[in-house]
Amino acid sequence: MNLGQSLFAIGALTILSLSVLRMNNNILSTDETVMDSKIGILATSIGTSLIEEASKLAFDDKTKTDPVNSLSLLTPVLSLGQETPGVFDDFDDFNNYVQHDTIYTIPFHTQCIVTYVNPTNPNSVSTNRTWHKKLTVKIASDFSKDTLELSTIYSYWYFR
């Protein structure tokens, strides 16, 4: 083998090595994207389940049995949360609720916040009682860079 053939062989091996490195990099990048997607789907499932669970309950502790026709009868803003620890019987019981789940060895940390919102600007928190409450659920995982945030607005309607 002369010098030209040796240089040609070294060049071919270098190109082959770079191609293998690039292929491995692409495979690892794809695996990371698939894992982020799985974590996102699981986090969405946790958040949706909590929202559905809260939406099945009464609007307020005062509306569980009898209708309410005055805002002053609703739970005060600073008293939103569980009246009895461990008992969820109305929508605002999820205020400051924290839940930890582990699914397929992936830990998830969930935090809920319930606030009154103004119907003209549902993205801002109202300091007064209104007929609309907003539940915001934040789900984070140690294996994900992002925190997923889901929210829903629950309104009270009473027809006479």
List the helices and strands and how they pair.
Elements: H1 3-55, E1 98-103, E2 106-118, E3 121-125, E4 132-141, E5 148-155
Antiparallel strand pairs: 1-2, 2-3, 2-4, 4-5
Q: How much strand?
A: 25-35%
Radius of gyration: 27 Å
Shape: rod-shaped
Largest sheet: 5 strands, antiparallel
Strand-pairing-aware structural class: alpha+beta
**H/E series, N to C?**
HEEEEE
Distinct helical segment count: 1
Low-confidence stretches: none
Report the mean per-residue pLDDT as an integer. 92
SS elements, strand count: 5
Distance between the termini: 99 Å
Give structural notes.
The chain is an alpha+beta fold. The protein has one domain. It has 1 helix and 5 strands, in the order αβββββ. It has one helix at residues 3-55, and strands spanning 98-103, 106-118, 121-125, 132-141, 148-155. Strands 1, 2, 3, 4 and 5 form a 5-stranded antiparallel beta sheet that branches. The longest helix has 53 residues, at 3-55. It starts with a helix and ends in a 5-residue tail after the last strand. The model has no long low-confidence stretch (mean pLDDT 92).
Q: What brief labels describe this structure?
A:
160 residues, alpha+beta, five-stranded antiparallel β-sheet, 1 helix, 33% helix
Report a brief summary of the structure.
The protein has 160 residues and is α+β, with helices and mostly antiparallel strands. The protein is built from one helix and five strands, in the order αβββββ. The longest helix is centred in the N-terminal third of the chain and has 53 residues, at 3-55.
